[in-house]
Amino acid sequence: MKRFNEIKDLVMSLESDFEKFYDKGNNAAGTRVRKGMQELKNLAQDIRVEVQDIKNKG
């Protein structure tokens, strides 16, 4: 559950950058969004591996 909370926190922390990029056209915010989305992808992959490991052991 810790990793799930990390994902929620990450998504919420990116909210203002999403608004700045999409609503105001701030390119620097877009860079931060892309970086955050890459981090989200990596966290999701880690969770997938962890779940599969637990599933295979059980």
Characterization of this structure:
- With 58 residues, the chain is an all-alpha fold.
- Helix 1 (2-13) packs antiparallel against helix 3 and helix 2 packs across helix 3 (27-57).
- It has one domain (2-57).
- The model has no long low-confidence stretch (mean pLDDT 96).
- The chain contains 3 helices and no strands.
Distance between the termini: 18 Å
Described by the principal axes of the CA atoms, the overall outline is: elongated
Gyration radius, to the nearest Å? 15 Å
Largest sheet: none
Helix and strand succession? HHH
Report the uncertain regions. none
Structural class: mainly alpha
Quickly count the domains.
1
Mean pLDDT value: 96
Number of strands: 0
Helix run count: 3
Quaternary class: single chain
Percent in strands:
under 5%
Give the helix proportion (percent range): over 70%
From the structure above, extract its key features:
58 residues; mainly alpha; 3 helices
Can you describe this structure in just a few lines?
The protein is mainly alpha-helical and 58 residues long. It contains three helices and no strands. α1 runs antiparallel to α3.
